[in-house]
Task: structure prediction
Amino acid sequence: MIKFNCLRCGHFADSHGDSENLDTTIQPRIGDCMICIRCGAPHVFLGLDKLNLVRRMTFEEFAKLSNAEKTEIAKTVLMITTLPGKMSEK
Ligand SMILES: [Zn+2]
Result:
């Protein structure tokens, strides 16, 4: 599991696999998308040897992803930002 400070809201977030497999033992690979559980901002994992573990994902990067990846990110962001009792309200 990787912990990172969200570059949008500052939340100390961690990686938990994806929406299908909540697995804290999964290590992200460089270039993987990591989404803040509090505000839904997508980040790109840069690697453990980098000063900043993540940076914000750009729209251009999102547009280049496969449809399956776009769907996964969109599902996760919508879940975080629209469900009652969403993390951003806490
Ligand atoms: Zn955030």
Observations:
- Residues 6, 8-9, 11, 36, 38-39, 41 surround zinc ion (CB under 6 Å).
- Strands lie at 3-5, 12-14, 33-35, 42-45, 54-56.
- The chain has one domain: 3-89.
